[in-house]
Design a protein that fits this description.
The chain has 371 residues and is of the alpha/beta class. The chain has 18 helices and 12 strands. The longest helix has 16 residues, at 129-144. It is globular, with a radius of gyration of 23 Å.
C-alpha cells in the first residue's frame, strides 16, 4: 500500500478526526487506501461506522463534504504538503517500532534525511542564554559529523538546535504540533523556510487547518524521540514538556543524554534530577558520539573489514574481546567481566575494533562480531 503520491486530500480528511492509530490501521487494512475509506464512509459501510465512536463519525461527517475535501487538496498543493502512511516504504523503521506510531504523517521537504544518523534535541522554550549557546554549539558540532538533529521547532532550545544543525551542514527535522499550513510560533517562519531550503524536513500527524493545542505537543514528542537513535536533553525544569520527551524516549528504549548545566539554576533542575537517576552525562558532541560508537572512520572500516581474530594487526586486548563475542551479542558490563579489562581500556579497544569493521555496536551498549 502506498499513499505518498495520490489521495493525500483524503488522508487529511481521515487525520482531521483524531482517530486512534489502532482503529485507523484497521480501516486502512480493510479498505486499502484513504480514498476508499472516504467512499466507504459516504455509503455508510457498516464496518467503517461500527469501528469508530459517534464523536469521530460526527467529525468525519463535518469535514467530509466535497468543498472541504477540495480545500484540503488546494492547500496541500499550494504549500507542497504531501503524506506518507505507516505502510509506505519511506516510513522510518525506528518510529514504526514504537508503541503508538502515527499512521498518517504529513510532510514538507525531503524525507531521506530520516534514513541517516538522527538524534533528538529538546529543551525549554524560555531557555537561558547558556542553554541556547550550548545547544547551538552542540548541534553544530554534531552536524559536522553528519548527524541529523530532530526537534520540535518551538521557541528556545528547539530553534537553536535546528539552527546549529543547519550551520553545521546537515539537514534537520522539525516535528510540529499543528497542521503544516500553520506556522507556530509565527516568529519561526524564516526558520521553517530555511529548514526546507537546506534539505530538511517538516513533519506533523495533524491535518492542514489543525491549530496548535496544548495537548498536541506532549503527544507529538513521541514522534521526535521515535525517529531518533537517542535523546539529548539540553535544559528543562522538572515539570516541563521536555520531560515528557524523556519519558517517551525511556519507554522506547532510547538512551537519554543530559547536559549538566548550572546546578544553581532552576532552568536545569530537570537535568540534574535525571543525572541523579541515571541520565548519561555529556559536555560535548564527542562524548555523545563516543558513547553511541559513531566516532568511526568509514575509510578504514572498508580497508580492514576482513580482519579476523587471528589477525596480527590486533592487540591482545582486541583478541580477548573478539573471543568473548564469538558466542553472540554481549553488553558492555559483561565484556568488562569476561575480558578482565578496565572500562576505559575496554572502550578504547572496542573503538578500534569498530574502526576496523571487526565488530559493530548495537542499541543499549551491546556488541557483536560483524558478519
Amino acid at each position: 500500500m502506498s499513499m505518498s503520491s495520490a489521495g493525500y486530500e483524503f488522508s487529511a480528511w481521515l487525520a482531521s478526526a483524531g482517530i486512534p492509530p489502532s482503529r485507523l490501521r484497521q480501516l486502512l487494512d480493510a479498505y486499502h487506501s484513504s480514498e476508499e475509506c472516504y467512499h466507504a464512509f459516504q455509503r455508510k459501510d457498516p464496518f467503517f461506522i461500527q469501528t469508530l465512536s459517534p464523536r469521530i463519525i460526527e467529525l468525519l461527517n463535518r469535514n467530509g463534504d466535497a468543498e472541504r475535501i477540495r480545500k484540503y487538496k488546494q492547500v496541500m498543493d499550494e504549500l507542497g504538503i504531501r503524506v506518507f502512511l505507516y505502510y509506505d516504504k519511506i516510513y522510518p523503521e525506528k518510529l514504526k517500532q514504537t508503541a503508538d506510531p502515527p499512521v498518517i504523517l504529513f510532510y514538507q521537504g525531503k524525507t531521506d534525511c530520516m534514513n541517516g544518523r538522527v538524534l533528538a534535541v529538546v529543551g525549554s522554550r524560555a531557555a537561558s542564554y547558556n542553554g541556547q549557546k550550548a545547544t547551538k554549539k552542540l548541534t553544530r558540532d554534531l552536524s559536522t559529523h553528519g548527524i541529523t538533529v530532530v526537534s520540535g521547532m518551538a521557541s528556545g532550545i528547539d530553534s537553536f538546535a535546528h539552527e546549529g544543525c543547519i550551520e553545521g551542514g546537515s539537514p534537520t527535522i522539525a516535528v510540529t504540533g499543528c497542521g503544516l499550513d500553520i506556522i507556530y510560533p509565527a516568529s519561526n517562519k524564516d526558520l521553517r523556510d530555511t529548514i526546507i531550503r537546506s534539505g530538511g524536513l517538516i513533519l506533523s500527524e495533524y491535518a492542514p487547518g489543525e491549530k496548535p493545542a496544548g495537548w498536541h505537543f506532549p503527544v507529538r514528542n513521541r514522534i521526535i524521540t521515535g525517529i531518533a537513535e537517542a535523546l539529548i536533553l539540553m535544559e528543562a525544569k522538572i515539570r516541563s514538556g521536555s520531560m515528557t520527551s524523556v519519558q517517551h524516549a525511556l519507554e522506547q528504549g532510547k538512551d537519554v543524554f543530559v547536559y549538566p548545566g548550572d546546578p544553581m539554576s532552576e532552568y536545569f533542575e530537570g537535568n540534574h534530577q535525571l543525572l541523579r537517576e541515571g541520565g548519561i552525562y555529556f559536555t560535548s558532541a564527542e562524548n555523545i558520539l563516543e558513547d553511541l560508537h559513531w566516532l568511526d572512520n568509514p575509510f578504514h572500516v572498508r580497508q580492514n573489514s576482513g580482519c579476523s581474530a587471528e589477525s596480527p594487526q590486533m592487540t591482545t586486548d582486541e583478541i580477548k574481546i573478539v573471543n568473548a563475542l564469538k558466542p553472540g551479542i554481549l553488553g558492555f558490563e559483561k565484556l568488562v567481566s569476561l575480558s578482565g579489562l578496565e572500562p576505559s581500556r575496554l572502550m578504547s579497544a572496542l573503538t578500534m575494533l569498530q574502526i576496523r569493521g571487526t565488530i559493530e555496536a548495537l542499541p543499549g551498549k551491546q556488541y557483536q562480531l560483524k558478519a
